[in-house]
Automatic annotation (TrEMBL):
MF terms in GO: amino-acid racemase activity; hydantoin racemase activity
InterPro entries (UniProt xref): Asp/Glu/hydantoin_racemase (IPR015942), Hydantoin_racemase-like (IPR052186), Iso_Racemase_Enz_sf (IPR053714)
Protein name stated in the entry: Hydantoin racemase
Top-level lineage group: Bacteria
Catalytic activity as recorded in UniProt: D-5-isobutylhydantoin = L-5-isobutylhydantoin; D-5-benzylhydantoin = L-5-benzylhydantoin; a D-5-monosubstituted hydantoin = a L-5-monosubstituted hydantoin
Annotated source species: Halomonas fontilapidosi
Family per similarity comment: Belongs to the HyuE racemase family.
Pfam family name, one: Asp_Glu_race
Enzyme Commission number(s): 5.1.99.5
Keywords: Isomerase
Enzyme type, top EC level: isomerase
Tagged with keyword Isomerase: yes
Amino acid sequence: MHIRIINPNTSAEMTATIGEAASRIASPGTRVSARHPDHGPVSIESHFDEAISAVGVLEEVMAGEREGADAYVIACFGDPGLLAARELTRAPVIGIAEAAFHLATLISTRFSIVTTLGRTGIIAEHLLDQYGFSHHCRRVRAAEIPVLDLEENGDAALVRIIDECRRARDEDNIGAIVLGCGGMADLTDTISHEVGLPVVEGVTAAIKLTEALVGLGLGTSKHGDLAFPRPKPFTGRFEGFSQLTPAR
């Protein structure tokens, strides 16, 4: 089984962190290839960043289709380009926020999210509504750290995240914590040990869900709105998308 995990930002360091965490949790026989776009934002912290990064996500899915990937994971907590990516393939495509929400509800009746910045917390709230998990989530909390601090000032960032997770435990009446950034993929065990609650992180959650879907022979439906996009001309920088045809 080959799972292509896509970091939608252009940070090679974060891509390596994500890929290592995914490979550690993957089953024997599962190959994980971690990729990021060549062009786009170095971190994703706004609606604007998400919109720009979505094009790179789609290009990485198209490359994966040519290489025969069995499934895809979009490793940004905003799940940028998720539905568009599903249009391009029959393979399963899972966003890490979507995966984390699902698994958190299987081990607790209420959870809180701890993310990086307050403004991205609002994006997480939108996803909770969209996916139908708002009633499971007590609160979306922000450690107020830039995403790149997870790589550049990792120790200080971890302290702030743990402090916010402890506040969530003590104040929110929850059973689990969801980490709200792909760059936190390697922090689960440390935070769970320090806080004493189950901690769900989306990269690792998504890997196990994609393995399950591939194992069950379930792929993205091509009936209705997730059918392959209708071929049509594109112009300018997107001319390469013209007459798009599925690789398989």
